[in-house]
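Explain this one:

_____
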Amino acid sequence: MKQLILILCALALITACAPTTTPTNQTIAKPIEGGTLVRAITSEPAALDPQGATSAGLTVVAPYLYDTLIVRDRDNKILPALAETWEVAPDGKTITFKLKSGVTFHDGTPFNADAVQFTFKRFKESGTKSPIYGSIQQIAGIEVVDDLTVRFTFKEPAANFWSTLAMPYAGIISPESARKSGGQLAGTGAFILDEWRAGQAITLKRNPAYKWGSAVTQNRAAPHLDKLVFKVIPDATTQLAALETGEVDVLFINQPEHRAKLEKNSNVRLEETELNSLIYLGFNCNKPPFNDARVRRALSHAINKNEIVNIALGGIGKVASAPLAPTIPGFDPSLKQFELGYAAKKSQALLREAGFTQANDGAWSRDGQTLKGVLLTSNRAPNDAIATLVQSQLKAIGVPVEIQQLDSKAVMDASSAGKFDLLVWRYDWNDPDALNIYLGSDRIGSTNRVAYKNAEVDQLFAQGARELGEAKRVQLYIAAQKIILQDAPWQPLYIPTDVMAIHKRVDGVRIGYMGRMLVNDAVVVAK
């Protein structure tokens, strides 16, 4: 085992120093300086504190304001960011980072080991709403070795710590800015917050001092753009019209008719990617009768995933058979044998086994209670189409479902509080620890929205978080998924194909790791 750990450490060091390929789509010899790039977003963050509660808006905006110690490229390789190199102790309980010199925060204060220590101590004390809080709690100590060297210690090896550090939630913040009451936190990112008009737009301006970018972009210095604007447009059709008229330059699309329309538009190019994402139908495991695994299995068998992909998504996406996306270590095709696949007759038989009887009108009841529910999801497309199909499929076996659509933040609040029966939702993560984050019993009330609890599964999650041997770690998560598939807190629906639509007046914009829009190489080539 010791030899295996040493090999893994050596590989990590090699990866940290390895060159990466540079973007190929930018062909301008001398980049054009200046200009503004506008991206449409469906919802804005509640705040721009990377250690705050998760939201789609936060993960979209935060990476431009805050740098992390490490980053990953689209192939999931670890690359240096604010940390230049690192060394892992043979027992996996200590990681020592050498930090980049000459880095400054937006408020003019220096980035150093003290700032790293402050950031993670603050996180441990007050970051309870963050999806990576559990991983941060694994840190036993943070030692400032010298001005540019910081050492993390752990009680147990933390195999999931690398994925944690690469998330935007782990952005390093200026201690001085955090100590100022009511002020905006300062990061070291390529952009600085310029203006925030609530409900309308968040405008970032170029950080002229920036010169410490990572190898995920060709330009590691200050961006060529003057400004980066995130325009809040909740409706997908309105977003599409804004792109076509040139009001916005970039948006993500997930409706087949929108894609088909843009494919005919010579002023727009499309870039697609399959992310570490999964869309699922969740059941409230705390609320009768959905606290009965037999009921959850029965309803899972009523869901026709192929119909969802072909009709709601126009065939753009892949049917999911397991709780982990295929791009995440721990996914195994053999798990399909444990999938609760579409079988309407089996669904009805399982309801009878669970003690339900069916009336002449097709309704199911048990102990005088009719089997029905409220399906909660966001008002973001294509969730409306997915929810309508799920409603139709459950109605076909005699289970009526009412659809409730709210904005993303309202859905997160309601689901965390357990105010739903069924939930169509999505996760995006970069590590098999996603299972622990979204299904671990200690995350109930936060990221574990379905209130699933299984002590055996929790133990497998804990072992997986400590196991440094990749092959052994994968097997632990496969074992956990076998149990999860039978307990059926989720019915995995599909793996999305994300498509970024880019107006050709800008060049050099690419999709990076976890779907992030990379703009350090972006230039405005036409007005």
